[in-house]
Amino acid sequence: MLWFRGNRVHLARYSFGFLLRNLSTSKTNLPVLTLFTKDPCPLCDEAKEVLKPYNNRFILQEVDITLPQHSAWYERYKFDIPVFHLNGQFLMMHRVNISKLEKQLLKLEQQDGVTNKIR
Fold it and tell me: What is the superkingdom listed in this entry's lineage (predicted)?
């Protein structure tokens, strides 16, 4: 998906891809749930509380969109945080949708189970 124009597209894809590669080389096969946030963000704090029961099913990666290196994300999401991506794909924004999260986590877990059986 391309959300930005010009040089920002390349930078945003490279930065986020680098983040995912670093996390994916860890010893776990857990998916990465990225929370795009800023400080303060009461809705983000609320979302993190709602997510606590699911923390063992994903790696939570927070991205502060106000940092200079995340300016592309700031332009995209400055009025929409919290925003969540699951394994680099948009999942939801504004509030946690538990049924959507659960559905996607189950899908990934089933895919991972099939992959592990093949190995």
Answer: Eukaryota
Residue 90's DSSP bridge partners are 85
pTM of the model: 0.73
List for the chain the helix, strand, coil content (%; round to 5). Answer: 55, 20, 30
Strand partners, 37: 64
pLDDT digits (tens, 9 = 90+) for 71-83: 999 999 999 999 9
Distance CA 7, CA 25 (A): 27
Residue 36 sits at the vertex; the CA angle it makes with 34 and 41, to the nearest 5 degrees, is 130
Question: To which H or E segment does residue 114 belong?
Answer: helix 98-118
Dump pLDDT digits (tens) for 48-75. Answer: 999 999 999 999 999 999 999 999 999 9
* CB burial readout 52-74, b (16+ within 10 A) else e: eeeeebbeeeebbbeeeebebbb
Contact assessment for residue 74 and residue 41, using Cβ atoms and an 8 Å cutoff: no
